[in-house]
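Bench notes, afternoon.
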Amino acid sequence: PQFSSWVRTAGITRAGDGYGHPQSAHMFTIQADDPYAQALNGMDWHEFYTLQNGHGTYISPKSAYKGYWDVKGPGGRPKPFVESEANYEDIYCGGFNGYDASRISAWKAVLCGSCGFTYGVTGIWANCWSTIGDTGWMGSFSTEPWYMGLGKPGSFEVGYMASFMKDAGFDRLVPRFDDRAYSDFDEEKVLASSEDGSTAVAYFYNNDLSTGGLRGLDPGLRYRAFWFDPLTGKYIPAGSNLRAKDGVYSVPDKPNAGDWVFLLTSRSVRAKPTEAMPDEPGEPAAAPASFPGRLQKPVLTSLGSAIYGKEGLLNTDRALTDGDIQTEWIPFAPESTQTIICDMREKKAVTGINIIFGKGSFDPHIRIMGSEDGRSQTVLADTRTGGKSIFHRDEYEGRYVYSRSLRGKYRYVTVLVFRSADKDTPKTIAELELYAADR
């Protein structure tokens, strides 16, 4: 009865839509052969599938998308689909999505034929207004209000993906799923390529350096290769004047164990923002480092610690640079990704950082980003792909410290603090010591 009611509603909407908007229906997590999905395909108002492939860090398999890719609409034409709900960032729904799953879901869906991706995030999706009281789904699906959902790292990363797809010629790419005529990839390696063999786009989200072989290329063409960093939207040149002998090309190892996109194309390539190959993982630091330059006193922005109570706004971001390890920066929702932006007011040569965690707090997952303008970002350090550099020191009353040398000239240094292995573990910071030279 509920399905029939929505079908009637859709018919009324179509009849009253003088503008001819594309029309669809938001779906539950069902496969293309489900009777409801098949029934929708037979409706004259239904023009594309609006998929919901679920949450809880579950990454939908290629086979699920292939099922919809193979669906033919009226007249035998392929019916488009859009992945509209997969792993919204930092929400609870069948488990905690966290940060990475949203980006991975986006790349996988689009390279498996989705005509786009709907990004969602804690607080905003869940209608949470404030840290005070029961607003929206606060405390169930979301643990942060809307303003803490602003500027989450995934919101930038899906934009990088969109720009990449425009440059690569998304409209020419065909998903290859598990077709061995085009690659030897497994589930965590995804490929789409052009019919003429001029362009191949591969996405690798496996947690090692392995890649695989591309097939179905044109041995008569000369290719250029690039790695694309989905965290920054920048390219790393990986070769030019390349040949695909017998139509086969072996993709080199990934730059590090993170997720990466590989572009191989014979088409003209416009100027692209580039970055250097990531550093090799370093050894853990053995003591708090004393870095060249001066200890900075940056302007701090931390939306995740902006907590409203009965007495108004309380933000503990000042504790990060007050020189007192007894005062602590405390985020409202420690399981969520936290962003701390340090603005040094002018571009300076950064030399290093010490992060002294709060008492009883331990979170080894840290990423440091540098930016000259607040928009274009460069990864300076990442504990998940480049060494943890975390240790325990008695002079800090048993606190853990992250210590890492940095290099490059930037105005902004952003610290991303990712979810603790145990969401109940405190995630606080007593001091953030950023060092830089004026020149």
